[in-house]
Amino acid sequence: MTDVNIRRATIDDVPAIVALLMDDAIGATRESADDLTPYKDAFAVIDADHHEFLAVADRDGEIVGTFQLSLLPGLSRMGAFRAQVEAVRVAASARGLGLGETMMRWAIEEARKRGCVMVQLTSDKKRQDAHRFYERLGFTATHEGFKLAL
């Protein structure tokens, strides 16, 4: 899908982004559009940080995709930056049209432009289709991830 404009999200995009986050079996269990205040508060923090890029895929004024690109500075790899991709979502109406690939290729190129040495992401173990998608793009499952809910 090439008829989209990938751009920095604005505060006005937050309701559409939340709807995308809620539009799958996993997201539906942890997101809620009842009160957008926490999302808008988080947006303000993300938007103020020059190492963060909350993106939307805009097709003729409709938000059909989103992801967050975070630039992570580190001392390892001789002080290299890594890019972390999070919360990749494609609207049901745009699935299967290549939008996910368009967004990921955009994120990879943006990371390259910003001097990152690698792009990394995590994906829930239940998302087998997503795993095949990322592998098709050249990502490899090189590490086991751990999380601790607080």
UniProtKB/TrEMBL annotation:
PROSITE patterns: GNAT. CDD domains: NAT_SF (cd04301). InterPro entries: Acyl_CoA_acyltransferase (IPR016181), Bact_Acetyltransf (IPR050832), GNAT_dom (IPR000182). GO terms for cellular component: ribosome. Residues 4-150 form the N-acetyltransferase domain. Keywords: Acyltransferase, Ribonucleoprotein, Ribosomal protein, Transferase. One of its GO terms (molecular function) is acyltransferase activity, transferring groups other than amino-acyl groups. Pfam families: Acetyltransf_1. It comes from the Bacteria. This is Ribosomal protein S18 acetylase RimI.
